[in-house]
């Protein structure tokens, strides 16, 4: 996602603010948060975002260490560098949070998402949907005479592009997992 610029002190994304030399850049960041796997932790993390008016674009959570009772929450959010720093600091103050990593600034990372797409179509639209699915390496996981369910994995941008191309061909329903992300190379988080 390309950075957007907004005027300091303004929540407006007006085009008139794009030329403001005092504008701050709004960026997309992927945060990895390692937490104690216990009831209520996810609600506390989400409450931090909603209580301060921060937006969550994507949220995934799963247990990553059964013996240590730890889960990893991957959050994709947007904000100015100052807002992202605030989010990290506030997350770090929640008691069951063990680690907070901003994968966007810590180096390159791998991000993937899974999407399921139900597409209706017959005739040429059906053939075109299958052709595009092949190009995007999407798998047909269910098929009837009236529709398909495609499964696709990739970057969020790839999933978005597939959705846009399927829309005019009869896209009926979409389910997405949200982003799962890991740092590249030898760097690890719990």
TrEMBL record:
Pathway(s) it belongs to: Amino-acid biosynthesis; L-valine biosynthesis; L-valine from pyruvate: step 1/4; Amino-acid biosynthesis; L-isoleucine biosynthesis; L-isoleucine from 2-oxobutanoate: step 1/4
Catalytic activity of the protein: 2 pyruvate + H(+) = (2S)-2-acetolactate + CO2
Top-level taxonomic group: Bacteria
Listed EC numbers: 2.2.1.6
GO BP field: isoleucine biosynthetic process; L-valine biosynthetic process
ACT domain mapped to chain residues: 30-105
Gene Ontology MF terms in the entry: acetolactate synthase activity; acetolactate synthase regulator activity
CDD domains to which the protein is assigned, alphabetical: ACT_AHAS (cd04878)
Database matches in InterPro entries: Acetalactate_synth_ssu, Acetolactate_synth/TF_NikR_C, Acetolactate_synth_ssu_C, ACT-like_dom_sf, ACT_dom, AHAS_ACT, AHAS_small-like_ACT
Pfam families membership: ACT_AHAS_ss, ALS_ss_C
Keywords of the record: Amino-acid biosynthesis, Branched-chain amino acid biosynthesis, Transferase
This protein's GO CC annotations: cytosol
PANTHER family the UniProt entry points to: ACETOLACTATE SYNTHASE SMALL SUBUNIT, ACETOLACTATE SYNTHASE SMALL SUBUNIT 1, CHLOROPLASTIC
Family: Belongs to the acetolactate synthase small subunit family.
NCBIfam families noted in UniProt: acolac_sm, PRK11895.1
Main function: Catalyzes the conversion of 2 pyruvate molecules into acetolactate in the first common step of the biosynthetic pathway of the branched-amino acids such as leucine, isoleucine, and valine.
Subunit structure: Dimer of large and small chains.
Protein name in the entry: Acetolactate synthase small subunit
Encoding gene, per UniProt annotation: ilvH
């Amino acid at each position: 996602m390309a950075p957007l610029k907004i005027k300091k002190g303004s929540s407006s994304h007006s085009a008139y603010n794009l030329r403001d030399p005092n504008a701050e850049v709004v960026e997309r960041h992927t945060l990895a948060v390692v937490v104690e796997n216990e009831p209520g932790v996810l609600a506390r993390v989400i409450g931090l975002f909603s209580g301060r008016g921060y937006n969550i674009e994507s949220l995934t959570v799963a247990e990553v260490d059964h013996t240590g009772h730890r889960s990893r929450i991957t959050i994709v959010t947007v904000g100015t560098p100052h807002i992202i720093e605030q989010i990290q600091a506030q997350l770090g103050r929640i008691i069951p949070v063990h680690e907070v990593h901003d994968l966007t600034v810590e180096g390159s990372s791998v991000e993937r998402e899974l999407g399921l797409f139900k597409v209706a179509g017959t005739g040429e639209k059906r053939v075109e949907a299958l052709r595009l699915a092949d190009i995007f390496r999407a798998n047909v996981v269910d098929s009837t005479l009236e529709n398909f369910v495609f499964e696709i994995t990739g970057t969020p941008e790839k999933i978005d592009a597939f959705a846009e191309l399927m829309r005019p061909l009869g896209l009926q329903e979409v389910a997405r997992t949200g982003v799962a992300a890991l740092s590249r190379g030898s760097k690890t988080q719990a």
